[in-house]
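Field notebook, page 270. I keep forgetting to write these up properly, so this time I am using the form the group agreed on. The chain and the ligand, LBFN2T5F, are recorded exactly as supplied. Prediction of the bound pose follows.
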Amino acid sequence: MEFAWFKGHGTENDFVVLPDHDGTVHGDLDPAFVAALCDRRRGIGADGVMRVVRCTALGHNSPAEWFMDYRNADGSLSQMCGNGIRVFARHLLEQGLVEGPEFPIDTRDGLKFLSVDGDELSVDMGAWTTGTHTKVTANDRTWEALEVHTGNPHAVAFVDSLADAGTLIEAPHHDESVYPEGVNVEFVQRIAPQHVAMRVHERGSGETRSCGTGACATAIATAKADRESGPATYRVDVPGGTLHVTVSPDRTVLTGPAVIVAGGTMEWSA
Ligand SMILES: N[C@@H](CCC[C@H](N)C(=O)O)C(=O)O
């Protein structure tokens, strides 16, 4: 099978974009195929894969034309990807598949609204919730963490220094009764008022250079600690750049750069 691909990133959280407009090229993505594409030595290399498919091809009755079918690097599913959807939107804009500056994209976490302003793309991530105070352990150190859901599950731990978490080769240990489907873990250092820095270990992808839903979870946990009640905008520095998150009681809006950097065709035989 020969197929087209694109590669893009948002603050160095990188993705393979697979056009499959009518659902006839890839169908339901095989986890082994996704993992092979994401392999950094034998494949294209990425933190995740997004299939670009029309909602109608999936039988969805949606106000959006396009559905983001997102997979982690190990082939597992996630409901939402905040950097991925902004890269997905950049792809749609560059290929003339949507008209800006504002448009919806459907996801497993429901409809999201995108807006473009030059190099920056924003996504209204919709509702968020927080849960219990839990614990995460990495490299024999344990921290208190807040359970946050931003379409997908997160545990946010405040640290004195980002280096405290050590190498994140292994997934941090977490309470499986709180997170039966796994968790994305953020380690967060305060830098200044409304300015934090974060490292993340992503479920299904390992330590990455950025995570959009994780930046939102981080901003939510920080806003709660700050007892913010109205909209508050946080700068979130990640190893791959800077994101901004506006936290309101009923939603977050994530803003940052997103670019497509390469594309081509590839032969694949299973
Ligand atoms: N990098 C993403 C999050 C991708 C999904 C996550 N690994 C999960 O399994 O929930 C982002 O930018 O939000």
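OBSERVATIONS:
- The pocket of LBFN2T5F is lined by residues 13, 47-48, 72, 78, 81-84, 152, 184, 202-205, 211-213 (CB under 6 Å).
- The CA atoms of residues 188 and 198 lie 4 Å apart.
FOLLOW-UP: compare against the apo run.
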